Amino acid sequence: MNKQFLQCGRYRLPTGGEGSAPLVMGILNVTPDSFSDGGQFHTLDHALSRAEQMIADGVDIIDIGGESSRPGAEPLPLEEELRRVMPLVYALRDCGKPLSVDTYKPEVMREAIIAGADMINDINGFRAEGALRVVNDSDCALCIMHMQRDPQTMQKEPHYADVTGEVIEFLRERIHALSGAGIVHERMCIDPGFGFGKTLQHNLTLLKDLGRMAQELEMPVLAGLSRKSMIGAITGKPVEQRLGGSIAAALSAVEHGARIVRVHDVAATVDAIKVWQAVESMKKDSK
């Protein structure tokens, strides 16, 4: 892959080249029904404290989400999502780190971009009516994710003949759609959508094939595996005990080609990546 950076609003993030480290995106859910943190950060003061801790821990991007996308989640009314997300965007826009907003609603995208968001992270791959028009004139980064069906039905017997091939073709079509709308490739990254309409075997296959995905699509890959059900299925641990499994998954994603990892546990993941990168640097120096 020859793309060396991601244009992320006010920031230009390294995504390739000699010595560039994988980026850590910290998850900041402001949802009372989040699957992984029990909604403990859904008040503004708690969310701001959490963001400050992420910054101290070395986060590269803060990803703000107001609507749960856990399997079976009901859609959130637009007004409620705006009420949850926008105060946090305004409060954090000068924090010194790129702000991402996790939404599939064009209206939320528009307001977030006006408020200063640097990235839009869309589980729906910018397929909603009007989404491309909203993001077209900005310079924010766009994360294009694959999802089979929708959060209400995605985990009801997901099926693929060739999961990696089908995810790549979906993402290729969406990249083409964004390019056709005049959006430059430097603003795009891709996410295979771990757990979004995939079985454990599908997720493991996609994890193994991240490098192929990055190479074929010539895009930096974002991998979100933190605390997900696949970690629970492998380890047998409940959500609150998946730290070790999540760090292992993040390192495996990086090893297989991910340039951004989306995580709940920023400090532990940053430390793990530092150790991994130190070893990788030694390996390169010895060649």
TrEMBL record:
Q: Which GO terms describe its molecular function?
A: dihydropteroate synthase activity
Question: What residue ranges are annotated as transmembrane?
Answer: none
Report keywords, A-Z: Folate biosynthesis, Magnesium, Metal-binding, Transferase
Top-level lineage group: Bacteria
For whether the record's keyword set contains Metal-binding, the answer is yes
EC code(s) of this entry: 2.5.1.15
Q: Where is the signal peptide?
A: none
Q: Which residues form a coiled coil?
A: none
Q: In which pathway does it act?
A: Cofactor biosynthesis; tetrahydrofolate biosynthesis; 7,8-dihydrofolate from 2-amino-4-hydroxy-6-hydroxymethyl-7,8-dihydropteridine diphosphate and 4-aminobenzoate: step 1/2
Q: Which cofactor does it need?
A: Mg(2+)
Please write the reaction equations for the catalytic activity of this protein: (7,8-dihydropterin-6-yl)methyl diphosphate + 4-aminobenzoate = 7,8-dihydropteroate + diphosphate
UniProt domain Pterin-binding: residue ranges: 22-274
> Enzyme class, one word?
transferase
Q: Which PANTHER family is this protein grouped with?
A: FOLATE SYNTHESIS PROTEINS, FOLIC ACID SYNTHESIS PROTEIN FOL1
Q: What does this protein do?
A: Catalyzes the condensation of para-aminobenzoate (pABA) with 6-hydroxymethyl-7,8-dihydropterin diphosphate (DHPt-PP) to form 7,8-dihydropteroate (H2Pte), the immediate precursor of folate derivatives.
Family recorded in the similarity comment: Belongs to the DHPS family.
| Protein's UniProt name | Dihydropteroate synthase
Species of origin reads: Noviherbaspirillum album
